[in-house]
Design brief:
about 120 residues; alpha+beta; 2 domains; 3-stranded antiparallel beta sheet; two-stranded antiparallel ribbon; about 20% strand
């Protein structure tokens, strides 16, 4: 999980989301060939936003292939576990693969309290 979704608002009060914090112009106005400045309002985890509001080109989600959200059309498979739209929301870290023989050291298996992500022998 990473807070990669940025909420923007333009001068014409359009509110939209994008997977980049460097956007300068409103995407909604841009489709009408009007150049309007867009301003960042906040950062979110993709699971905190309704999957239909995530940035898309047509009906294709604007994410790279290896991202699981692209596979499941913007719906997080861990939504029932971390409850992203509730007061108890806690972003969880994935387990880290460690190996005594491999190039990764044992320090890679450290985890933060309450965030998950501990080491996994495999």
């Amino acid at each position: 999980c990473d807070d990669v979704v940025v909420e923007y608002e333009c001068d014409k009060t359009h509110i939209f989301y994008y997977f980049n914090a460097r956007l300068k112009n409103c995407r909604i106005c841009g489709k009408k060939r009007i150049k309007t400045r867009a301003y960042k309002k906040g950062r979110f985890f993709p699971c905190q936003i309704d999957s239909k509001k995530l940035p898309r080109e047509g009906d294709r989600l604007l994410l790279k292939e290896p991202n699981l959200l692209k596979t499941f059309d913007g719906i997080c498979i861990f939504e029932k576990v971390c409850m992203p739209r509730s007061e108890e929301f806690r972003a969880l870290n994935p387990p880290k693969s460690i190996s005594v023989k491999g190039p990764t050291g044992w320090t890679k298996s450290y985890a933060y309290r309450g965030r998950g992500g501990g080491g996994m022998m495999g």
